[in-house]
Amino acid sequence: MDTITRIRCFLTVVDTGGFSAAARTLGRSKALVSKYVGELEDELGVRLLNRTTRQISLTEVGQAYYREAGELLQRFDDLKDSVQTDHKEAQGTLRVSAPRSIGDLFLTQAMVEFLQEQPKIKLDLALEDRFVDIVEEGYDVAIRITELADSSLIARRLHDFRTVICATPEVLEKYGVPGHPSQLSKVPCIIDTNRRTRKSWIFMDGNERFSVNVDGPIEVNSATTSRRAAMAGLGFLGTPEMFVHRELQEGALVRVLEPFEVTGLGIYAVYPHRRHLSGKVRAFVDFMVRWFKEKERDGSCPNLSKQHREEAG
Question: Among residues 52, 82, 112, which one ends one of the domains?
């Protein structure tokens, strides 16, 4: 067994947080991955990992070795790629995770076009409104709506979007048009439990963030049902603009508190490998970037606010 393979096993254990996850990522048994890491430690004459029944952690020397070995392996992989064809063929099964609300709204259309463009790829698309650990569950890539946080995952921004606060004209007539987000704590609100903050809605006042605690007659883990509840006049709704784009255009829902909306949100493709991408993942991510740009140009992308469209020219 060569040293490069042992190093790759060690790096994967650290990247995925454990031997079981590394084994799934590498397609090897947990015992074999543990054996290779042990052999690497024996070869070096040092302990790289502290092991307990619950978790692993890097020793001091392990931290230094991880950084250096990662860079070394990156250079090795880059050298290997440089002597191979520039564009590996996109083929095989691609496992993609995405929120159901996005899938129902527009992702299925994009997937059909992607498969027409890449006939050698078989798509395994899972649409579910829960946070998916793509490493643990073996996904190649996930589509997420979020403000990007620090993560061991690699993320590529596909598009911008904003979360809007809206309500029907009847609700606004009954409760008044709020001039400040704090007023939402005194009126009924529709709680989409897919949002990380749930009942604590986040707003911006200049460069400062603040939260407002809200409550209301319904809590549901569905953007579609939340929109229907808003249309039925059950209260104020906070949701990505893409989900109420048509209703806002038609006046069935009215946008409020626009100066306090949070910026910096986006739609991302995230994937676990910090080294070079497989052909199928690269093809998918590149396609999604191109797909969103095309929809923005022709004006059919539902997640651009009027302000964004004007700024885009």
Answer: 82
From first to last of the 313 residues of the chain, give the pLDDT tens digit. Answer: 588 899 999 999 999 989 999 999 999 999 999 999 999 999 999 999 998 877 899 999 999 999 888 888 887 776 676 555 444 678 889 999 998 877 777 788 899 999 999 999 999 999 887 778 888 888 999 998 876 654 667 888 898 878 899 999 999 999 999 999 999 999 999 999 888 788 999 999 988 999 999 999 999 988 889 999 999 999 999 998 888 989 999 999 999 999 999 877 788 999 886 555 678 888 999 999 999 998 877 766 654 434 333 333 3
CB count within 10 Å of CB 180 equals 12
Looking at the DSSP bridge assignments, the partners of residue 96 are: 125, 141
Q: What domain count does the chain have?
A: 3
223, 240, 260: which is the final residue of a domain?
260
Same domain, 254 and 284: no
Task: Please state the pTM of the whole predicted model.
Answer: 0.62
Closest CA to 266 of 102, 64, 117: 102
Furthest CA-CA distance within the chain: 75
**Same-domain check for residues 153 and 277:** yes
Q: Which long-range contacts (CB under 8 A, 24 or more apart) does 135-139 make?
A: 135/16, 135/17, 135/21, 135/24, 135/25, 135/272, 136/16, 136/21, 136/24, 137/97, 138/24, 138/25, 138/95, 139/95, 139/96, 139/97
Residues 131 and 183 in one domain: no
Q: Is residue 144 part of a domain?
A: yes
Identify whether the C-beta of residue 193 lies closer than 8 Å to the C-beta of residue 131. Answer: no
